[in-house]
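lol forgot to send this yesterday, sorry. struct tokens for the thing we talked abt
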């Protein structure tokens, strides 16, 4: 559909209003004030508001925040619950054993960190950015990358609004807007839609290991005050997952008798019958876990992919006209299960590089000083020490735990070897005929729940009359290959009930039904589909989950 689009000009356009994008915006405006040199900055965010799509564990290391905004405490940043205790349990079906404190590697020690709602921290960062003069536009989804004639990124275009399911304009049609910039920073989070295109166009991952991902499924509960231990950080491994499958859980007790509970499963799992959502629901029924939730109330639900490959899988982060920051590149430290401090740090480093370039009257070239600054930063040192974690855990729970112990406890992250991942997550799935089906217990509606009631409390919504944003390269593949060969794993790896195989009433043939309205934007389908036939594209701005406290 060809339409006339208005254009706006900025020095820097930032795609994504999460920790990385907002840190970049704040840092640019701080430098403007320090140097007395004006720089125009625009942040666009596809969620209905800043923070709407933010989901994380979340235990936050305040180091990068303190560098960015030293007086964050005085400014009222919502970091209220200091970690008071770390607890790590290996579970079997009926019980478990706790790991002594002296055996815990440094990556599992959280002294000095805070249990937070990252969504609320991000909302606060948005306020700080606006106070500095950043233009923030929530509800606008970056749908297209714009290029100069010589192939550099020159900005993005937001998606058209008011397009019907049939692809035709409705009465509410509004064309997208072009946002032109001298430099464009991409801060879309894990498996960014536009970043995926940039990877292909500029071959950004040619010198990296294949990226590894996880899916994190999370709930927030209000629990009985007698069972609440404010400041407790608890991690578990083992049951209910088989030993050859990487994953584990977290329970973080923060203020107001609330507990964040979640389950992370590596998307390199092999059994197509595995359902991360149902593993999580089953996990909560374990005797050592359910005791926290009995008599409590579930108040929020969400899910998100996690870019977990670390330093070995890090792509080239710069290209003509722009850069990747935060989880769009994959700076998360999987060993620590933390990414927000890395997002803040890389956002700030990219901003400093862009500001320097603007001061030299440059535009649309490569910000080489950004990856150089990262390489000499404390973050690079941190990720170097954690570089073996994900490749080790790919070898299963017990072998992985042993290797991580040697790497982290014995060598302190400086082992004389580097482990590697040799293939992407979607290639690990085995044909259904080679695997055992998994029978999950029926949810009880008190501790465990079904997908649809969960999606309901994620406040997810999309305009019904809009094109389906979960696109298929070839519509025949789901039935002919993924259902026939892999037993339709999209029904199970999706944590929101988006994909269903149903029988055609007239012919009795199977067809894939895509319930796009349920989509929580986790991107798992885009990652795990064994045929890579599903491509997640951005829906109309403002759609998706609206997380209040995640």
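and heres what i got for the seq, position by position
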């Amino acid at each position: 559909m060809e339409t006339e689009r208005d254009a706006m000009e900025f020095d820097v356009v930032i795609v994504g209003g999460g920790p990385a994008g907002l840190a970049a915006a704040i840092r640019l405006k701080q430098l403007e004030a320090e140097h007395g040199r004006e720089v125009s900055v625009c942040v666009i965010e596809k969620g209905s508001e800043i923070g709407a799509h933010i989901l994380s564990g979340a235990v936050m290391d305040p180091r990068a925040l303190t560098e960015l905004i030293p007086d964050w405490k005085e400014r009222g940043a919502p970091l209220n619950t200091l970690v008071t205790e770390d607890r790590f349990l290996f579970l079997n079906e009926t019980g478990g054993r706790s790991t002594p404190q002296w055996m815990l590697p440094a990556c599992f020690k959280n002294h000095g960190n805070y249990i937070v709602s990252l969504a609320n921290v991000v909302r606060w960062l948005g306020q700080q950015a606006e106070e500095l003069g950043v233009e923030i536009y929530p509800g606008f989804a970056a749908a297209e990358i714009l290029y100069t004639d010589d192939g550099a990124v020159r900005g993005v275009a937001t998606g058209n609004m008011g397009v019907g399911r049939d692809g035709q304009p409705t009465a509410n049609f509004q064309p997208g807007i072009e946002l032109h910039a001298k430099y464009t920073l991409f801060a879309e989070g894990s498996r960014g839609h536009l970043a995926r295109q940039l990877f292909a166009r500029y071959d950004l991952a040619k010198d990296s290991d294949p990226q590894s991902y996880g899916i994190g499924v999370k709930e927030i509960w209000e629990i009985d005050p007698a069972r609440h231990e404010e400041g407790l950080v608890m991690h578990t491994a083992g049951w209910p997952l088989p030993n050859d499958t990487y994953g584990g859980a977290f329970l973080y007790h923060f203020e107001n008798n609330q507990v964040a509970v979640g389950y992370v499963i590596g998307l390199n799992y092999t059994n197509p019958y595995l359902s991360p959502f149902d593993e999580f629901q089953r996990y909560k029924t374990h005797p050592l876990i359910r005791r926290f939730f009995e008599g409590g109330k579930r108040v929020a639900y969400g899910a998100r992919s996690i870019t977990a490959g670390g330093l070995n899988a890090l792509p080239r982060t710069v290209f003509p006209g722009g850069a990747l920051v935060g989880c769009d590149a994959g700076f998360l430290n999987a060993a620590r299960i933390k990414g927000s401090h890395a997002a803040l740090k890389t956002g700030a480093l990219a901003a400093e590089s862009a500001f320097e370039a603007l001061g030299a009257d440059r535009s649309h070239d490569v910000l080489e000083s950004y990856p150089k600054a990262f390489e000499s930063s404390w973050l690079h040192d941190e990720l170097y020490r954690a570089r073996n974690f994900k490749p080790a855990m790919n070898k299963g729970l017990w072998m992985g735990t042993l290797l991580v112990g040697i790497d982290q406890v014995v060598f302190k992250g400086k082992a004389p070897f580097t482990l590697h991942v040799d293939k992407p997550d979607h290639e690990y799935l085995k044909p259904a005929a080679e695997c055992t089906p998994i029978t999950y217990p029926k949810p009880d509606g008190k501790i465990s729940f079904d997908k649809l009631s969960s999606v309901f409390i994620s406040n997810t919504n999309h305009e019904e009359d809009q094109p389906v944003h979960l696109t298929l390269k070839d519509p025949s593949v789901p039935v002919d290959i993924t259902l026939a060969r892999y037993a339709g794993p999209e029904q199970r790896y999706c944590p929101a009930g988006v994909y269903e195989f149903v029988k055609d009433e007239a012919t009795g043939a199977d067809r894939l039904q895509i319930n796009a309205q349920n989509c929580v934007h986790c991107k798992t389908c885009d990652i795990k589909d064994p045929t890579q036939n599903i491509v997640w594209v951005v829906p109309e701005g403002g759609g998706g989950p609206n997380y209040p406290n995640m």
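Residues 7-69+120-210+311-385 form a domain with the FAD/NAD(P)-binding domain fold (CATH 3.50.50.60). anyway ping me if u want another try
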